[in-house]
Amino acid sequence: MSNFVYRVSALAMAIALNSSGALAANDLALEEILVTAEKRESSLQDTPISILAFSSERLERFGISDLGDIAGLAPNVTITPFPNSRSSLVVFMRGVGNNDSQSTQDPAVGIYLDGVYVARSIGLTSDVADLERIEVLRGPQGTLYGRNTTGGAINLITAKPGEEFAISQQFSAGNRDYWRSLSKIESGKVGGFSAKLSYLESGHDGWVENTGEGKNFGEEEKQAGRAAVRWDLSERVSIDYAYDFSEIDGPQHYYQTTSSTGNAIPANEQRSDTGSWDGGVTPSHTEISGHSFIVSIDTGWGELKSISGYRELAEDIVQNYGGGLPGFKIGVDIEQDQLSQEFQFVGESGENWRYVAGLYYFKEHGSELETDTVPVLIPDPNPLLPPTLLTVTLEDRQIYSTSEAYAAYGQLTWSPAMFAHRLDVTLGGRYTVDKREARKDSAVYFTGGEQSDSETWSNFNPSLTLDYNWTDELSTFAKVVTAYKSGGYNVRSTEDGFTPPFDEEHMVSYEFGVKSSWLNNRVSVNASVFRAEYEDMQLQQITNNATIFLTDVFNVGEAQIDGFEIDVMAVLMRGLTMQLSYGYTDADFIEYIDQRGASPTQGENVANQAEMPYAPEHNYTLGLDYERAVGSVSSPMMLNASIDYQWTDERYGTAFNDDMSGFFLDDYGLVNARLALSDISLGRLGLEVALWGRNLDDQEYKVHSISLGAYQAGYFGEPKSYGMDIRLSF
Length: 730
Known about the structure:
Elements: H1 2-18, H2 20-26, E1 34-35, E2 42-43, E3 50-55, H3 56-61, E4 77-82, E5 85-93, E6 96-97, E7 109-113, E8 116-118, E9 131-138, H4 142-145, E10 152-158, E11 166-174, E12 178-186, E13 193-204, E14 209-210, E15 220-232, E16 237-250, E17 256-260, E18 274-275, E19 284-298, E20 302-320, E21 329-349, E22 353-378, E23 388-414, E24 423-442, E25 451-469, E26 474-485, E27 505-518, E28 523-542, E29 551-573, E30 576-592, E31 618-631, E32 636-648, E33 651-652, E34 664-665, E35 668-682, E36 685-694, E37 702-707, E38 711-716, E39 721-729
Parallel strand pairs: 7-10, 14-18
Antiparallel strand pairs: 1-2, 3-9, 4-5, 5-6, 7-8, 9-10, 11-12, 11-39, 12-13, 13-15, 15-16, 16-19, 17-38, 19-20, 20-21, 21-22, 22-23, 23-24, 24-25, 25-26, 26-27, 27-28, 28-29, 29-30, 30-31, 31-32, 32-35, 33-34, 35-36, 36-39, 37-38
């Protein structure tokens, strides 16, 4: 497959070079992409951030329905399932992230839905009923987005109500009994009021047949809906309210045994098509809902915006890691709710000054009840009799937590007239106060009974960006950004790991980037090189290899991450567009203090033995998109064909462990394609028909791997999938 990609790349570039004259004659150009990464609408080419943006059209063509689907399309972004929750995702960017989902720790990549921060990774696999755009902001975004963006930020932006009445209905069907229904209705603008309703349902049978009791592994049913209303009170005042919900039902994915010590458990390194769990399959259930209320006022000096958000989730899950035999099993019941309020002021003064300022408040409550069990064989005194199988409780833990944050931020951009407004100097800063309380109890490990503690952290993070427009088609930027991530508590650990809390993490990032357009905007080339230096880096260490859930986060020391990103889009010929994105990451520990109590290297610097988790050295995506009008002049239709190839390098799922191989993931590449015919006229109705396929060459690849002492288990990604979409619109 790699040879195929190289041939396609060479052919594409050859076409681009040899047809530049023809392109000029045809007056072809790339479509301008607008983003809101800096809290104001601007062209992607004018935004001094390493950013990828996916429009609703691109999301549809790539078959993106939830956040996990963009993993292969955004180099230097790694998104994998969290092992014990089918609805959770582990998000890393430029080698930085957090591979846990507990409410006493913060992620390093912030996820935002219409400007509202989504605190937990639970529910990130939920379909968003009506996405308009996804923005991936690589690198720290602490000034405008906060303490939980040391790696970067991802903005999920939903479609707003339109001014025209419209109805659409999409039906999808595919192999493994996949189905999906998406309904949308818009009221159009009536006076100053407009509304939009979206509702979707989907389901499939999973790709591992359950030969035991219960449904197939990975089988799921999803529901999601969104209601959005907009009220323009005047030309200067508008109110937006939105409610969204999603539900996910189905058993967990199948973790098959991939290797074992002394053949204790039958193992298979290839993807299994069948499996079973001892005791059958237990279904899981996840519910997420949220409200947002946004008031926008044009003051004449700028736009004043109030963003209020409330979100809540509940999840009941069971996961077995026995690989078909009695094995390690967990059950978790989670509840969480969050409230946020942001006041934001965005404006400008002539051509010389632009400014953003804001106040932010956030509060979160969380609870978690977890029970971990493992089977133990007890030999019978009589050697002629079989051993007795007992279920031993490893952990029976209750966790309660509260997080509260206050922040004030500002960013000022000066564009001096002496440089013909080609130079932008941006100073920014954010002051944050974080308070966290945690309480936990365990019937197994906590001999002293319930434990509780609280801690407060505060920090000021400045930033400086220089952006110079050499021409209308070429600009460069250089930036120095500081960021921090608040401390927290270890609640998945033994009694000794709870207090004191681990401390905050600090980092400084240096970045130089280029934004450019060529051949009359037929080619865009954006690139950036970066270095991130971390102090008191927070990293999860596995304190007991017999269960992945006896883990602690420690401030392990210092790390340095260097890297490079390039994103290319080019109109190769009329109707044919190429997208190429590549990311390189060189992540190294400068100091890594091993703090595992049972480790022979406890207290020692083991930086030369440790690997940065979820940091593949190379990853890229290559896509070709072809579009042309077909049919008669009086009744034209649009034909679209797209194909993309996504490749990611090998990587580890943990930094340092006695058995690193248990967490190792091989490199893999996926081929996806879509063929669509749209604008088919059926009287007053419009019809679109599309055929699609994912992982067309049926690659076998692991998306998650864990070590459980005597054996390793892995979860394999989706095999070849294909289907059809039919959409009617009015």
